[in-house]
Amino acid sequence: MVVIGTHGRHGLGKLILGSVAEQIFRHADCLVLTVGPGSFQDAPVEGSRAIRPFLFATDFGACRCMPCSTPSPPPITSGQNSFCSMSSQRSRCRRAPIVLGNKVALVTGGVSGIGLSTCRLLAREGACVAITDILDTEGKRTADDINSSGGSARFWHLDVSREDEVREVLRQVRQTFGRIDVLVNNVVILGANKPTHEITEQEWDHLMAINVKGVFFCTKHAVPYMKETGGGSVINLSSIYGSWLRAMLPRIMLPRALCALMTKNDAILYAPDKIRVNSVHPGFIWTAMVEKLAAGTGAGAEAVRQQFASKHPIGHLGEPDDVAWGIVYLAPEEAKFVTGSELVIDGGYTAQ
Ligand SMILES: NC(=O)c1ccc[n+]([C@@H]2O[C@H](COP(=O)([O-])OP(=O)(O)OC[C@H]3O[C@@H](n4cnc5c(N)ncnc54)[C@H](O)[C@@H]3O)[C@@H](O)[C@H]2O)c1
Questions:
Q1: Which CATH number is 210's domain given?
Q2: pTM recorded for the entire structure
Q3: For residue 108, which of 20, 217, 204 has the smallest C-alpha distance?
Q4: Which residues have C-beta atoms less than 6 Å from ligand 1?
C-alpha cells in the first residue's frame, strides 16, 4: 500500500499523517509518504514508530520519491487482551490488535448482516466480543469462527426486548470478560408493512419493544459497567431514514429516528462519565433485513437491488463491512472527541 500525504512536516499535518501511517502500517507491507517540499533528511517525524522508516519527502516541482527498500514489517503477534481467557489462540494471528486490545465489546443482533461484520471486525482489531442474538445456532457458529481464526468471542442468547434478560446477560458478560467498554445497539426488526393508520397497537408495541426499548435496556444496563471502568462507547445503529430522508413507512423511520434522538440525549448525559454515544446511519446495505424489504415489494430481488443501488451516487449498495468499519472507528479512545455525532455511511445518498 502507498499512502501519499501533503503538508506532513509540521503541526497538525504531521500528527495526522503520523497517526494514519501508524494505523495503516499495520495493515500494509509497505508505506510511502510524501510530506511536502524539502529533502528526505528534512522530514523527520517524531513520535511515530511506524512511519519513520517509510518516510519520503517530495518536492512537488521535482516529485522525487525514493523507492521503498525497507523490508516488510515483522510479523506482529497479538494476545494482549488480559481480560479474555480465550486470548491464547490469538498468538497465531499475524496482525496486532490496532486499537481495541483490552476492550470488551457487546454487539446486539450480532449473527447477521451489519452485526455479524461488526463482531468479526471488532474481534480482528483486538476486542473480546460478546455476540448476542436470538439465533443460538448461528450465534455459536459465529463465536467458533472468530475464535478459530485467532479472535476472542463468546455467544449469549439475548432478546433485547426483555429487560430481565438484558440485565442478566450484561452481568454475565461483565463477569466473564471483566468489563464492558463498547456497546453496539444493532438489533432491528422490520415490523408490519403498513401505513400509520393501519398499524395495530400490538404491532406497534412489538416494533417499539425491539427497535427502541431494546436500545434503552442495553444502554441502561451497560452504563453502570462503563462508569466502573472510567468510560466507554455506545454506538447506536440508526439509518439515513432516521435523520435525513422522509416519506418512508413508520416501521422504518420512527424507531431509527428515536435511536438518533436517544443518542444525542445520552451523549450529553454521559459525557462527564467519559461515555461517548454516537449513531451510525447507513444507506442501503444488502442484508437479511433488506432482502425482506425487497421481498415485500413483489419485484424480483435483483430488480430491487438495482433500484436501491441507483439511489446511491456511488452506484451500488453498501456491504456490511462498510458500516462495521465505521463502528470500529467509533469504538476506541482514538475517537475520544467524538460524541453525539451521526456517522453517515451511505454512498452519497443523502448528499444529493
Ligand atoms: N441493512 C441496511 O440497509 C440498513 C440500513 C440502515 C440502517 N440499518 C440498521 O443497521 C442495523 C442492522 O441491520 P441489518 O440489516 O444488518 O439487520 P439484519 O436483519 O441482518 O440483522 C438483525 C439481527 O437482529 C437479530 N434480532 C432480531 N430480533 C431480535 C431481538 N428481539 N433480540 C436480539 N436480536 C434480535 C436478528 O436475529 C438478526 O441477527 C439495524 O439497526 C438497522 O436499522 C440497516
A1: 3.40.50.720
A2: 0.83
A3: 217
A4: 108-109, 111-115, 133-135, 158-161, 186-189, 210, 237, 239, 256, 282, 284-285, 287-290
